[in-house]
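Self-study notes.
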Amino acid sequence: MSDLDHNTLRRAIAEAALSLSANAIAPQLVADALAYGGAKLTTHGALSVETGAFTGRSPKDKFVVRDGLTEEKVWWDNSGALTPAQFDLLLSDIKAHLAGQDLYQQDLLAGADPRHQYGVTVLTPSAWHALFIRNLLIRPGEGIATSDAATPVTIIHAPLFTADPARHGTRTETVIALDMSRNVVLIGGTSYAGEIKKSVFSLFNFHAPADDVLPMHCSANLGPDGEAALFFGLSGTGKTTLSNDPARPLIGDDEHGWSKDGVFNLEGGCYAKTVKLSASAEPEIFTATRTFGTVLENVVLDANSVPAFDDVSLTENTRAAYPLDVLPSLAPGSVGGTPKTVVFLTADAFGVLPPLAKLTPEQAVYHFLSGYTAKVAGTERGVTEPQATFSACFGAPFMPLHPTVYGDMLAERLRSSGAQAWLLNTGWIGGAYGVGKRIDIASTRRLLTAALDGTLDTAPTRVDPLFGFAVPTDVAGVDPRLLDPRQCWADTDAYDVQALKLVDLFRNNFKKFGPDADAEAGPQLLQAAE
């Protein structure tokens, strides 16, 4: 199968199925999920599902076909490899596995800019997975410009298929396999729906740079003059929460492209974390969880079928998948102008980083490549103290190219646009996790507003002695002591020890990019830490 006709492939799978439901809308998919898929309906009308053994992605089971296109491009240290023959055998076996089953087909779009658009067809035996991806990708005819020449993508989803490592070249019985040359994705052995969404992003991340588009794992919203603001951050840093602002129309929640013309959303929905969700702290997301057609993943329901968002007995990675149109304030067409502000979010559980820091373009690239946040004690088995997490470009598992490819593109975009980059810490102050306290959301929002509206462009700053970035010393409505984390510690010597520990973690992580990347991207941090 060196050449592939997507229509022929899709038709072959459909003809072998017991039945095919094409482009069913939410009421039918909800009804089928309730009747056949083990789903439940919450008292407010959302669909509640469980994903079984896998409550998160399986990055070590992701593979890319190693061929003439990918051989010299893919960051193989970050991805497993399959031969074209292994992929074709896997495809044949998955097709045989799905034969005779009831299937659902969703024909959707990825990319709100018609010049950079994918026509994505997902085939799955699961009604709720079909609803999930229908919520998250762009539904044709719903206000997004459409291209007649969208690049075809086919995703074949077989959650109950069992891969054979000896036969298919996989690591385990679970597999996520991407053929970048033919834009075909095979997913087997996992019911975690995020694998479908992220496979689209992985394809986009591979191809977009060749079209002079920077692919980004970020949220984005619009300022009063139509300029975009970008919010990068790993899970738990507040990316979705902070980008949802009724005063700033949302472009998108999670995945975007930055072209010479501005920013465009890749998706048509949101995939928000719901752990400890409350109506007061995150009203837009909370309302979305009470909307018919929203899919709630691994959220425990109480005796009255009301979501218990504080219950993490299944997983802390509880999620809600819903279409953008349930939100109150959206950017027309899911596009925006050239970014004016770039925000890197981190939740520093070491209690070291300031709540807000102004970055030079070089520092911005350094923090982009580092992709830092921290796990806190108790979130995972065996984690008893803060643990640094570094994910290049804030999304390493689905960045197929080497991170410096994306870093170089970001550097060029920052230089050409004049966008100001900020590091916004939503983590702990006054001590590490367990001693200090988390920075309150009201202060975080005030700091973010001041960064977005230009108030801090000429505000007084101090230079952090270890990280080298500029830290504002006076922000209206924010306690000045909060802006200097060292002064918030009862024992400043203990702060110094903790700060040097964090610097060393940054330095050691950055070594994987090589000496050239060290010298170019992180001079302020590295020189200060000598």
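Second protein, same conventions, sequence then structure:
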Amino acid sequence: MEELQDAIEDAQYVSAIASVDDGPRPVVPWEIPEEAELTKWKDGLLSRHAKEKGASPSLPTPFGFEWTLAHALGFFLFSAYLKESVGDYVEINFMEEVIRWKQSKGRLRAEKTGFIVVNYLAPLAESANAGDPPPVLAVVTPDAVASPPTADNEKNEHTEELKSISKIHPEVRPPKTEIKEYSLAREPTDFLPEVMQELRARNSGPIQNCIGVGGNILESILSKVDKLRNLPGFASTQNGTRRQSSVSMRSEVRNLSLVSSTLPENLFDEAELVVAENIRDKHWSGFQSSEQHTKLLNFLWFQDRTVVEEDFFVMRVLGRGGFGLVTACKKGTSGKLYAMKVMNKKRIKLKKAEKLTLSEQECLADVDSPFVVNLKYSFQSKTDVFLILDLMTGGDLSYHLSQKGCFPKDECLYYGARIMLGLQALHDRGYVYRDLKPENCLLGEDGRVKLTDLGLAVKITPDLHGAAGTRGYWAPEMLDRDENGKRKNYGRMVDWFSFGCCLAEFISGTSPFRSQIALDFGLKKGEKTKEKAIDCATREMHPELDGPKFDDIAADVCRKLLDKNEATRLGFNGCNEIMSHPYFCDLKWEDIISDRMQPPFIPLTDVNAASQSEIGTFAEDKAFHDTVLTEQDEAFYDKWNFTNRKAFAEEVIEFLIYERETGKPLLPIPQNPTCCCVIL
């Protein structure tokens, strides 16, 4: 009977992950607050703001224009109001593009600069014949700006040429675009009267455009992008003659990236301020009495309520940790799939692991990176604490290594690049990971890899010492002792040694210090146990990285990462030092860092985890039953409850985008009242 239940849960799980692309599938409605509840919540926010205002005078007032647009959900709903209810989209589209521009780097920033200048800042024509239809404005897409000419795209002026900046007709409006991102938000700005008066003076002049920016502000922007506009990749039609690229694509991209790096970060700030002030004058009061504003308040109220176990519907068991199970789950209101890590408070107390448990939660909440599994929510019950995390359905890299033997070079490069960026994200926040191994590198359904299991991640301190993690991936300095026999202190460099172990394993299929060669080395040195032999090899053995699987460059990067001396180990000066090694020279780092590179391998939509019977359960022995949780034990978890506001906004915006695209409300899916399901 248990096997049948497991099969049913497996089928439901596979069906759920296979239908993710079909859109959100909620199972319960969003709760709407009573008027009294909403008023109490609003008063609470305003009261907290009044207390915090003294320490941070620039803090925007709750529910105001700046505060609303600083929230991704507020920006999304305000944009939707302008486009759907008012029909005035040009200025808000410009503000959206400026935010995207600020989030971009290198070549992508160069492309977005061209898009903004041509579509929004192009000066008006000096004259136009009455009755002439407005010319079509070139819609410059990112792919068009830096793509070399081909027989196909030469025929398409929208993607190959930019219209002359001095010939744009005054009636031309750029096309309406919708927000498709889940995290587009605007940094709050002080609208001081004297500042706006000065900007209006700088904006005055005869030259205007579709967003009403001109004068010295426009002249300043255009003068700063002149160098960019003259590059082949930014070619435009001048005097009816096409100006084509005369350099290779590689040189063109390099030039675009080089010049874009010289553009000031505040290039569009003044223009954006003028546009934002115009929008506020025209539309803010209307938004405050709109349906979209009501939705915003209801959703933000829901965000601030206490999350409870009943908000989630549990599916298949995926794994087992030290204190409880990891299961797939669904958020009832949004239909979003997550992983739920449950840790029993009694088991935590038995192993005296309260500090480690709290450290994991704090680290997960602190590190926001596309290369590290993200904490969405944490909450608790009387018996357990819960972590709601990214659901990584593609299995871990250890599993895929066992299937393939070793990874081809493109996968080694891709996984290695993302793992090192994940480690750097932890280091940047002051943490050392201490548990890097293929089992802790999870694939998403799209093939993107992320670091997981931060239970051993801790803040780096001057007296950090003691072996932690998995034997064979430990760095030598974790095992070293001083002349008095005490463990030596270490820092973030232990992670780069573990990274070297993993990269060598990706390339060859074998971890250098978990091999038969390493075991034999230690035993010959006189060690009596397998564990001591592996430790000896870690401290003293220099792995032979040769043969058909290691070329000279691959062997060099691994040797430098596996340097016994942390001061000379590759990575001592940070992630950039490893990125610059010739082994990674062919990677498009800009695409990796921006998370735009497509993974080289997509895992099957299947249960990429052990069977539920193999995962097992926890035995509740006498020690477990005899353990009593006291008030002091409960006090450990006083600050455990957490809602990731960015993750909540993503849930809601994905929900709202689906409603926008389908043109109808997204209602909860009725649950099957029977106990049976069909297994296909």
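Instructor comment on the second fold: The longest helix spans residues 269-288.
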